[in-house]
Fold this protein.
Amino acid sequence: MIPSIRAFLLINLLLSVSLITSLAIIGNLFFEHKNLRNYLDARLSTTSSIISSFVGNKNKAHDLKNIQRNFNKNWSNNHSKCLSNNNQKCGKKAQVFLKKVEFQIWNKQNKLILYSSKRLIAPLYKQGLGFSDLKLNDKSWRLFVGNNKANTLTIAVAEPYTFRDQLESQITQDSIVIMVIIYPFLALMIWIISGRGFISIKKIAEEVHNRAAYYLKPVSTDAVPPEIKPLIKELNSLFIRLHETFQREKRFAADAAHELRTPLAALRAHIQVAIAAETLEEKNEALQKVLQSVSRSTHVVQQLLTLSKMIPSNTAIQERGPVDLRFEAAQIIADLITIASKKNIEIELEAPEKTPTIPGNAISIGILLRNLIDNAIRYTPDNGMVKVIIQPHKKFVVLKVVDNGPGIPEKLRRRVFERFYRIIGNTASGSGLGLGIVKQITKMHKAKISLVTPETGKGLEFRVIFKR
């Protein structure tokens, strides 16, 4: 099942935000690692200064013992008070930090006079002034050693590296927790925003849904986002094609009804005459006219069916391939030879044995040939001649159908391609659809058709030029 665009956006945006946020956290930890260590080193140096100020120049043993006693009480047991003469309370962050720090204070005689605890027994001042790393009690420590202003005391402040690792881990955990907390809100915002983004699509869908089946005007693109304008344009193009198809079908139905009305009316009249006939000769004559009307109606129906096949949406005529024009012409001539023989008309095919093929649809090319040759047979008088000539050239192939009939006046040669048009005074049977079908097939194949007078000066020549 294909997910909705809204769900697709929600899932992929959340995954993208997760990836980018994770990369940001990793990047911050990587790039801020050094800055955090520098900051904590500065805190060690600041702590050393605070301790130095706290101790001052009190060198009496009694005072130092009181300080150590108070310090042990507040530092080790309570951790809720700071090192100050009046025992002021510290902030929680300072308590946590001071809880992790160990220090030692040595006098000029290298005597330990004050310390935070007995965990660090080694004399830390021997590491030298400044920052350094050391390992004591199976733990790694960061050490800062400095002197007071009077240069009478050496103050060593140490912090375990585990505290720094915990701090970095806590920062990472806090970032992850924040990301997890904001995820539902982020998903809700994406869902709402994407929903608002699809409002225009919903409006267009509702507009199309509420349309009547016959209403095929284009959808307005004024309030349509640029991303879906191509879709709307293609939809409008489909509406236009459907409108043209419906109009064509409507016109075809009207033309077919109009054209069938005449032969059916004549058929009805002839049948009525046959019924009312008093003699056998009159009845036979009326029935003969009935047969003629039936033949004409049959021809009209066949042409209408052929015309219906020429609808562009018909998949059968959309299939293209190489067409052997000589082979198709020979097949059509063989089919129509019986009709020609009734009028004693000779049909001749002039084409080279290796005629080049043309790109097209074999079915529609066959219809074109049948209509042109059949049309020539109908309008050629008895004992006449019809020639089908195929002339290949470098870039095109010329098809000629020549007869020695009455021809068509030059001023009417364009109108003969109109549907149901027939020249006044023409006695040959027909429906007026054949040349309209031929014209439509030539358009489908991007061919050119023209009517000219043969070299003999008599009859008519249909000339169709196909691309090779």
User: Anything to note?
Assistant: Residues 76-97 have pLDDT under 50 and may be disordered. The first helix runs from residue 5 to 55. The first strand starts at residue 102 and ends at 107. Residues 172 and 309 are 73 Å apart (CA to CA).
